[in-house]
Write a sequence for this structure.
């Protein structure tokens, strides 16, 4: 259920509605929009009725939502959500490029790459400290030390950090360092982790599971938002299909579909989406042309020595060309990209 | 096997090499390039050896190709192939937009739509006269009469025609009218049809099967080329995956992958690729940004009355916006699109 | 639409109803059942009304069918259909095993294998004379000569022949030799071929396309039946998924689903379904346990020398073990398998 | 790396080898077999060399394993592993049927169903107390209270309990009650949970992720085993494909493939695998015919009132027929099933 407030409704009116909702054992979610405020109601199973709600002061309309996703839905929140990540707005006119290594491997490595991507126009630094790996015998990341190296790189370059949290055990630690918490594809339906992240008040980058439908991704975002954390960014990173000449099948259809169904920003990860470094740039261009709000790109100064995902990492030199191309496409869709130095 | 001729080799030398190849029971394919001529050898099973071929006059190099696709391969023919469809070059700097109804439904319908798409910048007219349909009880097309209506529209507008041939029985008839013969997704591995089309000297638009890998699409093109018809255009039109909020999953990864593996032009069909008219334009933009040489778009002036695929057809008004957007993206990748009237 | 006739309705009554249907431009299909006769009506687009049909002599009930598949549907024909292939009934209590080489390679090869599989209990001989191959450079079959070798093997062993027809051009020729015409997976939606096969009065084995849904397979069968050929056998042979340790994913779910939706017999091809000879026998057992009416198995006396599909072919020795196992499972589901010599 | 010990090697020799392995920073895994003991070495990245190991007393052979899965592999442990779950052996001659409701809904419900399935021959009781659900607004289980009801049912019936653990936070609690810890499909690559479960000494039922390859499932089992918990049971429960007439596509190919690659027992879940209660029995038959060691079946006495998965739950009456059928198939593959009362 969704309660739409009148344009001029004041805080008192909002509080009263929230109290009524709580009195029935449900949870109110105040969602401010550009023009008016809506209050989402969750916690119910099926249809809800709160008598006389429509006659309460300040209430304009009560909408019964049948869709399984509510808070995530554009019906509920027609304007685009802009998520602010330590001063970098995601979801607005400017397309944000996040770049960095797959995994943090050493202090020198991350500092070097951070400087390079900053110089070329990236607005955020990516890098994994806790790495989920298919084999128990593969490199699992530098863990806490990796986070410290990232923080050091942030201090020098000013770039906010996006890094993955792979379990609730390390959530507190990772959240201390990260500006944008990444939930990886394999954890998209780790509902406990989603709920814990939902209790924080920190932006979340939620990656689509490799066999998750768009509706399931939206419901995973709903898990986070139902706990009160509305700063969620959806990430298309390729799905698993029968095609075997690419690592994944980047589903760019998902970009306009998600932008239509949801108000949340959409980021695309063409590095994982195709898995072949020489084809990351055309897919980055295509992502922006399809309507992506941001890109997340793997960059490594020595891809052949990378401890993971070397085959899909761009060198700084190739990344410069990507940035040039992406700027041109952004302009063609009336958007901008940071210019670098 | 591939025989690369010296730059200055004359026709006599070429003929001699071809004769030697034929003498061993194989088929020579003379493939002129910008700089030099290569002669592909097919008909062998596995490794071939023709003694002393390297010492024949005019021969620069003999390359043993291990890849199952030969004629289709960029190794064999490094320059982009440009297919000329009745004066419209596909595969060059200009991006060609083909547009029209899914099915030809009446003389008035096709004439009206042809005029509209021509006015808005389309360079070719699409329209189905023989329609393969999943149910035997669905509309199967106007058949010969449909072809005649298309020809009439061509006469008035000057737009070359692309239309589907769905079996060998009607191939002669369809080939009489079509400027570009379309092989549909369901026929991508109808090898008899591929071979028959390969015996013609007419451009072919080969659509990817809905569960075909990129390699299988290239091998299907190889079937056509192995018969001597080198004017093949590859078409990405979406693959079948578990995602059910779109009709298909448009695999734009396939664009840079196919452009790297093959010298053939690549066209994208975003109408079938997403199946939702309101999202065709962003996917058309993404296709061009990914490197497509052409687009094929379903347009209908009354989509709600269309006998097939109404849900994915653009009105002329929406098509105008698509053309505007596609022109801007084309410019951003240093290409052009016809300006319309 | 479906017209159900009274139990005691005579030929005259049936003819009268058919005439009325034809008079409206539709096609009647007389379908005899164990208890009563039903007449299917096809050729309509959407809802049909033939006035006063219910008051015609002999008519018990007129049922408006909304499902896209009609003739194929168990609603229309509740009893199991038994297809008679030159004296071998498929769809009854006895489970029929068809066996033989993937491709006919020589007279000796096919004679040898035919004798072996006959001896071990196979009731039909399989073997391809026209082979659809992904690459134009792979072995394409012995064609007419292959058919002649098959006929010779039939003459000696008495085993009816199942062999593939891959295009309409060779349909007449193949139909002359084959007792059961196989439509391969790649041709499941070659609608022209389906219609031509539908005009014959010869049993058809219709293989599921590698990315076809069960509903699409049933609609493909409907194409054949809508032309008047009701002797169709459905074949599950594996679908294409992301799993890459097997050639295909054998979808045994399809067996009970198809048996519930349709009255047609179901055969399973575990050889293609898993693609690994050492695992064909457990999958053959599972097929029978799931409710399959027949099996089609690739057998080759020298798999390592086979021109195609050697990796999935059983030797006669392994086939003997398969037959023993299948007999035991058949007994456990109250069915039988021929005992061999 | 794998160290195979001589037949007569004593504990001292084994300890010495383990010490040498630990001295190099690797982890030894002592794996007793029927004839001899092998010691797996993990913790290395790539090739390992421990000098002179082959000359140590008691060592028969040192095998360098290149496969990414080691402990899970049949190469390393040729005999079938039998996992003992509170006295019920899984992986031996007897096929074990686990049955019960999808979710524990009340004391009465679970007691009633437990008595019924016990009476009909089930050897273990299944039931979810912590339910991972796609929507945050769906029923999430009775949690601790659900575990208590399960324990009470075990006390009365003697049936060991299998129940899901969905996060590390509740692992200790769930492990206190469960006899067999289930890792659900969505958690198959929740590596933190796998490692924590690996530190316990309790049997684990590991479900295949809905888009996981067989190799990935084996690597997930390897995660558990690499921590020292060797009591892992692999579970095929259907994969996600394009087919939409069933909930999942049950991949029975996986049964013989996994039995060949690994020594671990394999259980099949036909309830989730097809998702249609009326077709669970044929798929249960097929599972046993394909070689499954156990089945896990959803049973509910009032499926239409079930809070989750009602559509795929059998009534006790249908379950009785399933048991009868499964017993017959088991006998046909020389195995047994408990007879019930």
């Amino acid at each position: 259920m969704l309660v739409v407030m009148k344009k001029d409704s004041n805080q008192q009116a909002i509080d009263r509605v929230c109290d009524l909702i709580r009195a029935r054992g449900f949870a109110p979610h105040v969602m401010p929009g550009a023009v008016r405020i809506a209050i989402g109601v969750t916690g119910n199973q099926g249809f809800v009725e709160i008598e006389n709600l429509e006659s309460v002061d300040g209430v304009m309309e009560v909408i019964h939502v049948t869709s399984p996703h509510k808070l995530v839905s554009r019906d509920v929140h027609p304007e685009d959500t802009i998520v602010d990540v330590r001063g970098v707005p995601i979801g607005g006119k400017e397309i944000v490029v996040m770049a960095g290594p797959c995994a943090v491997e050493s202090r020198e490595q991350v500092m070097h790459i951070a400087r390079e991507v900053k110089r070329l126009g990236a607005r955020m630094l990516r890098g994994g400290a806790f790495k989920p790996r298919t084999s128990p015998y593969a490199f699992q990341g530098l863990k806490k030390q990796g986070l410290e190296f990232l923080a050091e790189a942030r201090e020098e370059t000013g770039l906010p950090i996006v890094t993955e949290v792979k379990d609730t055990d390390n959530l507190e630690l990772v959240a201390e360092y990260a500006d944008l918490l990444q939930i990886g594809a394999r954890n998209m339906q780790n509902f406990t982790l989603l709920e814990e992240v939902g209790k924080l008040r920190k932006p979340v980058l939620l990656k689509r599971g490799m066999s998750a439908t768009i509706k399931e991704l939206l419901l995973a975002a709903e898990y986070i938002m139902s706990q009160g954390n509305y700063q969620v960014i959806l990430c298309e990173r390729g799905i698993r299909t029968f095609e075997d000449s690419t690592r994944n099948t980047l589903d760019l259809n998902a970009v306009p579909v998600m932008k239509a169904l949801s108000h949340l920003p959409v980021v695309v990860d063409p590095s994982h989406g195709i898995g072949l470094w020489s084809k990351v740039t055309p897919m980055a261009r295509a992502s922006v042309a399809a309507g992506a709000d941001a890109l997340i790109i793997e960059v490594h100064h020595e891809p052949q020595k990378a401890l993971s995902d070397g085959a899909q990492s761009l060198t700084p030199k190739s990344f410069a060309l990507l940035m040039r191309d992406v700027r041109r496409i952004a302009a063609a869709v009336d958007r901008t990209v940071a210019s670098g130095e």
About this structure: The CA atoms of residues 166 and 187 of chain D lie 7 Å apart. Chain D has ten helices and 15 strands. Chain D has a mean pLDDT of 91.
